[in-house]
Amino acid sequence: MKKSILIIPLLITIAINILGITRNLIYLIPSGMGFSHLTLMKYVSLKLPSLFMFENVGFVETNSANSYLTDQAAAGTALATGFKTLNGFMGLDSLGHPVNNILESALIQGKSIGLVTDSGLLDPLIASFYAHTKSLSDPQNTFLKFLEKGPDVVLGKIDDEVFQGIKPKLSPDFTLIRSEDELLRMEPWRIKKLLGLYPQNGSVAISEMIDKSFEVLKRNSEGFVLVVVYKEIEESSFKNDISSLLNAFKELNSIVKKTLAFCEANEDTLLVIVSPYEVGAPCITSLFDLKNIIEDENENLQGINWMNDSIIPNMTFILSYGPGSEKFRGFHRLSNIPLLIADTMKMNLPSAFEIIN
After folding, report:
1. Beta bridge partners of 269
2. Mean per-residue pLDDT for 165-176?
3. What angle do CA 100, 60, 105 make, to 5 degrees?
4. Which CATH number fits domain 23-356: 1.10.10.10, 3.40.720.10, 3.30.1490.190, 3.50.50.60?
5. Helix and strand counts by DSSP (H, E) for the chain
6. Phi, psi at residue 198, to the nearest 5°?
7. Domain residue spans in the chain?
8. What is the pLDDT of residues 27-42, one digit of tens each?
9. What are the φ and ψ backbone dihedral angles of 46, each rounded to 5 degrees?
10. Is the pLDDT of residue 224 over 90?
């Protein structure tokens, strides 16, 4: 009997390695981050190596269907659905037709789903993972429709007016939290679904959000899809705030370490890290400045400048780990990424290869 108990996990591990079974997905989106951020992170954050340990690395073209310069809605839609669309469109193809997204496809497959962010849940980039609209003119009903589809974890910030409107209509299946303290006290084994709706001006601990999400989502034997949108790098870059950016690098390093640890303990989990666009493009202006920055251990920030304070049309990056991760090497369009994920996980996303190629 004891031998059987030991053999079964071993057989599962062998099957995962041989067959490349992918049961879970962690889709990590550090928005606003480009190769200039990676370069800066490499030199001024020498003790934060997590992003530089990946063997499977790719390049991502970010333009939308109608512009070399994408926006948050079009980029989010490409990452969520596999369709390149017009700027301003969320969950719609370029003709304005609603298209299935990766979270909806996971639900159809019987998987648990989660959407986690340190920013607003109504942000166009994040809303593209559940909305099907040209504008969030009715955010309350759009968000309620998403909750009615049955997500298992939703964590992020929301406008107070929207919160007051949806609170009486929430399903009793959700355990509602509104602060970091409530999240830390929450015992996942006691709840069915987790809904964290933080005030817009409140602080959020995204690392703790991810921990709690794993505890809720991993209970489903069919697996899960967890989308994590980390926006602090983008927001720091829009402000051209180097100090905040370096703190955001540290948090991202922590997030990546945490997700990698989960993948190593759960070998049927695919981790995909992809940035939808670059913001600001921080740069080190000279070798002298670089030497000072490194030797002063990040205290001297004078030698770092910015190209601008907006989205730029540069290529970004994709990193991957786990079963099927080799598919993400090389050059890709943003809209290719969810199609590769769907193929790896045997999910039924409408094929858009004919459209994007």
Report:
1. 24
2. 94
3. 15
4. 3.40.720.10
5. 14, 14
6. -90, 150
7. 23-356
8. 999 999 999 999 888 8
9. -65, -20
10. yes
